[in-house]
Amino acid sequence: MKSITAKDYDWILSAFASRKAIENVHPKLLRALMARTYKLVRSDIPSKSVEVNFGMLSEILEDDKTLPNLYVITMVSESSDININFPYKLTKLGKSLGFRGWHGADDLIYEIRRSTGIDIKATDNKYHVFIKAGRTSGNRKYSHAALKLLADVREGKEYGVEL
């Protein structure tokens, strides 16, 4: 970040001060986050290569408690919370929907992306989380909300995707 221009810095200072310190965060990850944020602000948004919800950003920046949500920074009380909230891998999700394997569920996710333009696998959200397990590999996990969403798509019901 090169500069911040504001009448008052209290909002940013209290946002950082109100949170418990996040321990064991690799500095390389933070540098990558900073570099990606800089690229987003300097080139992606001005070139309109990314869709930005400025209303949502404005709301987040007005409430100190939601500022970390801008970067999806959160504290997980226990590692099992991920497994409780996102119990499905793609194969289990597909089988829970009545398919023989993962292909049916993946086809429904593609159908959502085709019809709405929203790829639920592109980000961590209430339907999906990507848990990094190495430099380039990881595990995708899906929630009960994803199961319901995909069931609605499979049955031809009207559905809405809320990331």
Verbal overview:
The chain has 163 residues and is mostly helical. It folds into two domains: 10-71, no CATH class; 80-154, no CATH class. Helix content is 45%, strand content 6%. It is built from seven helices and two strands. Strands 1-2 form a two-stranded antiparallel sheet. The protein is globular, with a radius of gyration of 18 Å. 12% of the residues are buried.
Quick recap of the structure?
This protein is mainly alpha-helical and 163 residues long. It has seven helices and two strands; from the N terminus they run ααααααββα. The chain folds into two domains: 10-71, no CATH class; 80-154, no CATH class.
Strand order of the largest sheet: 1-2
Total beta strands = 2
Percentage beta strand: 5-15%
Summarize model confidence as the mean pLDDT.
Answer: 78
The proportion of residues forming helix, as a percent range, comes to: 40-55%
H/E topology pattern: HHHHHHEEH
Distance between the termini: 27 Å
What count of helical segments does DSSP give? 7
SS class: mainly alpha
Task: Estimate nothing, just give the exact number of structural domains.
Answer: 2
Largest sheet: 2 strands, antiparallel
List the helices and strands and how they pair.
Layout: H1 10-17, H2 27-44, H3 54-62, H4 80-85, H5 90-96, H6 103-116, E1 128-132, E2 138-142, H7 144-154
Antiparallel strand pairs: 1-2
Helix pairs in contact: 5-6
